[in-house]
Amino acid sequence: MIGYTAAARAAGFDSTRVAGGVLRIDAHQHFWRYSATDYPWIGAGMECLARDFLPADLAPLAAASGVGGTVAVQARQSLAESRWLLELADSSPLIRGVVGWVDLRSNRLPEQLRECAAHEKFVGVRHVVQDEPDDRFLLGADFVHGLEQLRDWDLVYDLLVYPQQLPAAVELAGLLPRQPFVLDHLAKPRIKTGGSHGWRQDIEALSRHANVSCKLSGMVTEAAWRGWRREEFTPYLEVALAAFGPERLMIGSDWPVCLLSGDYADVLGIVEDFLSRLSAVEREAVLGGNAVRIYGLAAG
User: Fold this and answer.
1) Is residue 258 part of a domain?
2) pLDDT tens per residue, range 74-105
3) pTM of this prediction?
4) What residue numbers bound the domain in which 128 lies?
5) Domain total of the chain
6) Interaxial angle between packed helices 197-207 and 234-244, expressed in degrees from 0 to 180 and rounded to the nearest 10
7) For residue 290, is it within any domain?
8) Of the residues 37, 83, 130, 271, which has the fewest C-beta atoms closer than 10 A?
9) CA-CA-CA-CA dihedral for 6, 9, 13, 16, to nearest 10
């Protein structure tokens, strides 16, 4: 599934072209049927998220922004949710891939992977590591053993971490050099307070591992909600671009979580405006081609 840029170019493969055209992909969004029990993290001040969000809600927003496909990412650590997302993917052509959850520390992991990976749209796995109190959770022996099994099923692993957990992510990427990783939300730098020094160093260290890519997503909720300016994000985007290059970056909305701080089109517009400095081919890669290549998404 993974074809790194040098190899792709050597083979004459342009990763930004799909079925004769450019397929724009929102590489990070969520769906849920809301209940307070299932989504306890939706608390006070987040009432706009306390309802159902389904493909029919996203489809007109995506169409208006020229998005032709999405990667739906887990929001609950539940095998039942992974199954539900795959059911949605069966009925919605908008969903090109699902990054779900399986219990990477379970003795039953092989059968969980066998079940989920039987679906062609199951492209990756994620654990909500940001909620783990141990900053080195990623390096636990049982967790690493589970990660080692993902390559047997050609699956990506999405890294959802805070800045203080990045050193463990750097170590993990070196420990499993053949496992593709995707960093979600730039590891959530503290944009509201302008902090970036240690984060920048760790991002640069992580990017030195060729098996790691990065999503330009989740930034507006790390800024002042509904009070941000586009230029606030530029320094963080510049770090990501310099570190990963346009061949290892993807755009993602983090819808509907982004609604806490910005509308769908405005959130995508932050990255789209920033990409204006790149060539057309490089922009197309970040806006869709890389997601298709890295996740192995179906073209149609």
Assistant:
1) yes
2) 999 999 999 999 999 999 999 999 999 999 99
3) 0.92
4) 5-295
5) 1
6) 20
7) yes
8) 37
9) 80
